[in-house]
Design brief:
Strand order of the largest sheet: 3-4-12-9-10-11
Largest sheet: 6 strands, mixed
CATH architecture of the largest domain: 3-Layer(aba) Sandwich
Structural class: alpha/beta
Strand content: 15-25%
Distance between the termini: 56 Å
CATH class of the largest domain: Alpha Beta
Shape: globular
Radius of gyration: 20 Å
Number of helices: 9
């Protein structure tokens, strides 16, 4: 049993907090009320706008959830053991989550990453000790996927996590993100919207929310073209479609312009005090498109990360 700790201010004895691991810190992120943004953009008075602040995860993004789920599933199946190397493709955040958890659990991490990933992400990955294979920036995340598949075929001793086709990806959100949203909104959520990259967040969260209440409307967001500045997102009609993506899950899709996301990122920093990443801003743009058509309801989205991995982007000063 842990010995009690003395609180200096009051001289009382309180239970010392139990030791925790990095994995224990994944999930249970805050749900933010974006009332100021809702009012500023003229949403109906009875429409509430909320967002999950996923940068509270230990590596700073929503990707800690699927990365941990994939690793734990592989460990249970005996596919991943200490000393092995985990391989996957990434646009940055998932790789950072893998690298953090790999360092904490005794795995090497090898990542195929587009060469135009932000310098901040590359520096973080190298700090964690990940081995990086930089791929053609013009091919985006699809080019990284192709390279990861090639590496996996060449070396069967690697554990290929394959986040785009691994059901443990969406299951992380089915068992975590959606459960938290339902509890934090006291079951009052009426609409859910977020962006499509691997599609795991949208797939898993939507499936579980619709089990809670089939009347919840779920709308996905994606870039408006294959060539866009929404890092990590996929234009599904032209991209390599993730195996975990199912078009019949959800109630529709919205296309987001890159400039809309950039402007939203600037506005959130200056009017909400929220310094978020581009994909977070794009997710909120999608949620606002949904909210504009409502007279009442509660719209919830996911903000995948904050803006500190994007400080080198020029749009902040515009």
């Amino acid at each position: 049993m842990l010995s009690p700790a003395i609180t200096p201010q009051h001289g009382r004895r309180t239970a010392a907090p139990a030791p925790t691991s990095i994995a224990d810190q994944v999930g249970h992120t805050p749900l933010l009320n974006l009332q100021r943004t809702a009012e500023r953009l003229g949403l109906a008075r009875n429409v509430e706008l909320y967002a999950k602040a996923e940068w509270f995860n230990p590596s700073g993004s929503v990707k800690d959830r699927p990365a941990l789920s994939i690793i734990q599933a592989a460990e249970r199946a005996g596919h991943l053991r200490p000393g092995m190397t985990l391989l996957d493709s990434t646009s940055g955040n998932m790789g950072i989550a893998y690298a953090m958890l790999g360092a904490a659990r005794g795995y090497k991490v090898k990542l195929a990453l587009p060469a135009n990933a932000s310098p901040e992400r590359v520096s973080i990955l190298r700090a964690y000790g990940a081995e990086l294979i930089l791929t053609d920036p013009l091919e985006g995340s699809d080019g990284a996927i192709v390279e990861a598949r090639r590496l996996a075929e060449e070396d069967p001793t690697l554990f290929y996590a394959n986040q785009y086709n691994n059901p443990a990806n969406w299951q992380a959100h089915y068992h975590g993100t959606a459960v938290e949203i339902w509890a934090q909104t006291h079951g009052r959520v009426t609409h859910f919207s977020t962006g499509l990259g691997t599609s795991g967040t949208f797939m898993g969260t939507t499936r579980r929310l619709k089990q809670y209440n089939p009347n919840i409307v779920a709308i996905a967001s994606m870039p408006d073209s294959p060539f866009n500045g929404l890092e990590g997102w996929k234009h599904m009609p032209t991209a390599i479609k993730p195996g975990i993506y199912d078009e019949v899950v959800g109630d529709g899709r919205i296309e987001i312009h890159t400039e809309e996301a950039y402007e939203m990122a600037r506005q959130l920093a200056r009017h909400e005090g929220l310094f978020v990443g581009v994909s977070s801003a794009a997710s909120l743009v999608g949620a606002i498109h949904v909210a504009r058509d409502l007279h009442n309801g509660m719209v919830v989205t996911v903000l995948p990360d904050n803006g500190f991995k994007y400080l080198s982007e020029r749009f902040w000063t515009q």
